[in-house]
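ugh ok so i messed up the first submission bc i forgot one of the chains. this is the corrected input, ALL of the components this time, i swear. 224 residues overall. if the numbers dont match what u have on ur side tell me asap before i send this to the collaborators (the ones from the other lab, u know who)
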Amino acid sequence: GENVEQHPSTLSVQEGDSAVIKCTYSDSASNYFPWYKQELGKRPQLIIDIRSNVGEKKDQRIAVTLNKTAKHFSLHITETQPEDSAVYFCAAKRRQNFVFGPGTRLSVLP
Amino acid sequence: DVKVTQSSRYLVKRTGEKVFLECVQDMDHENMFWYRQDPGLGLRLIYFSYDVKMKEKGDIPEGYSVSREKKERFSLILESASTNQTSMYLCASSFLTGANSPLHFGNGTRLTVT
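and heres the new structure output, hopefully the right one now
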């Protein structure tokens, strides 16, 4: 089955700096890769996603890159703000099933 | 906006009790999922369903069962609750088709088994 690894498990950055979270997946049949943000006590919310036939996607300060050959994808957050502090999960979808990484706790220090 | 509603935010149950967690979605999604969230382990799939009365085991189905009698409702059942089932339970739903069909989550049920 699919296995998704995610690094780092915790990340602290100064406000205004960039943050990068990396994920790898094992199943080459996975074709859709969403990223979720979970604030304390709240539900995971989709922040950006990418399909397997696309290499990069950007939405304001957030971007995701995908390297299908290497089976890894990354989340990039630029100009970080305190409200970006949360746990971020990557996921890989194969058929109807989603497999999640263990999460990255991002702290943006003012 | 998609709404996935879980019936309870917090539950406290005793060991051996039968526990029902209910989830309802209002977007006519075919797929529904139950995940368990534990620190450092991320979200692990317990069961999912892609149609009424259909169910598939996820990665950690032991000790759980599910019921999908109506398209909008998906129930998770703990037949005999144990302390190692103390966790956050998240329900989610999505469309069946379409590569860009993300999961939409409920607010979660924090279950404590004593």
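quick check: Chain A touches chain B at residues 1, 6, 9, 31-32, 34, 36, 42-46, 49, 51-52, 89, 91, 93, 96-103 (CB under 8 Å). that seems consistent at least. The radius of gyration of chain A is 13 Å.
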